[in-house]
Amino acid sequence: MKKYLPHIKKHWYCFLLGPLFMTLEAAGEFILPYINANIIDKGAANGDVPYILQNGLYMLLLAAAMLAAGVLGAYFAVKGSCRMAAGVRQDTFDKIQSFSFGDIDRFSTGSLITRVTNDITQIQNFTQSLLRGCFRSPVMLIGALIMSFALSPDIAWVILIVVPFLALAIFLIIKTASPRYTQMQRQLDALNTGIGEAVTNEKVIKSFVREEHEKAKFGGINTALMDKSVAALKMMILMQPISALAVNVTTLIVVWIAGKQIMIGNMEIGTLTAFITYLSQVLTALNFLANIFLQGTRAAASDRRITQVINTRSEITDTNASAKDHKISSGSIEFRNVTFRYFKDNQTPVLDKINIKINSGDLVGIIGSTGSGKTTLVSMIPRLYDPDEGYVTVDGVDVRDLSLRLLRDSVSVVLQKNTLFSGTIAENLRWGNENSSDEELTQACRIAQADGFIRSFPEAYRTEIGQGGGRLSGGQKQRLCIARALLKKPKILILDDSTSAVDTATDASIRRALRETLTGVTKLIISQRISSVADADMIIVMDKGAVVACGTHAQLMSCSATYREIYYSQKDREEPYRHE
User: Fold this and answer.
1) pTM over 0.90
2) What is the rounded distance in angstroms from the CA atom of residue 541 to the CA atom of residue 537?
């Protein structure tokens, strides 16, 4: 309840007035049959028209009051449940924003989407039903039982005999349904993950003509969800026929017993009519309570999944940071005996005892084969991951002792995957600095060699680029991402293979502009092309998670066999084009 209480307290009046109005409506439910019985037994039986009109007016006024109470109760129930759900959804999303890359990998994107949407919706629906029925149903149940005994204690005992059997059936249904709801929500995770992958990678699917494969794959996931849903929901389907059976059997017994009493004059027809109405109310109240319990079972499964997110202790926090007020000034970096594993029980680390020192303002190139640990290495600087052993320092301070906000504000990272958002080019660029001027946008784009192609569009910087920048080429996306990173005015700039989609001339122009304009910024460039890092102050050569060599291009050509091998392999590939 800890995660719900703040939002319940904030909208306390909804959680008070909703049940109150529903209780008032329920009170009228067991008064109406009593008045109706009097109309039949006293008014109709004696031909007393004024009595009938008077009590009919009472019933009309009572029905109007019940209508008003019911509408108000439903309104406050909906309002309270929706606002509570919105608050919990916001809390859950805020928590996800604090997750490290490792936390997100552990849950999976599809599962997190399901938890923020469908799971919280289940809790909202349960809360709404609870507010509408938690007092209304018990009041109706108890009130109808009391009125039944007041009318005919002998027949009322029939209800008490049927109720335990109905309650036992409901208990068994709930017990069976509970684990099935958990399985259904897990399968919904798989469905959302599948949809996300298919929609995001639509261009790849079409280019490989894999539409039929994806249709079949989705069909399997969809069918599995259908099967899990049917298995869970068919237990709810049993509720209605079981309740109907209980009502019909009890009604038959009551009519059979009451019929004899009417024949001997011990009971009047109006009383029997009221009694059957009360019987229906008792069983309806039980049925409503059972549905609340069933919804509660599904909501409990969702609640456990949301709690897992809320209670997750992120692997990366600055709670115990001892230098939270330290502002990065120089941008010097050092790796000391850094070892890291994505899967902590793996014997072979992704990074193994890395020791590197990078001076402030240096241009550093990082090169190596695929899977050598280049991206993982630079991810340690802004604490996207933390090392298992050793530590990373910026400005001579362990990054774990720095404020996460101040650290990441000082580090700009252009990742391998170029992520842009729906909106205009200018709106995407201002992710780097929402307060940047048009002149600053233009300057950053000139450095990133993006200003030219942007101005070729009719709307220039106001051009809508579509979801994920779908209307731009790969090279254009990369240059926009570089410009966006520059707008942060960082002390450390990390370019992770971020010029792979541009031609060598544009790549050279970007590097030249970075060197000339960002003299005080430490620049790390990961690249597969030696030509992109050949003029760096220092080149780090990595292989199988280890640093195998460091130095300038000339130094590495003379002392590093791994570097020479990469150089000549790329040189040989370039030769044919030079001769054409």
Assistant:
1) no
2) 13
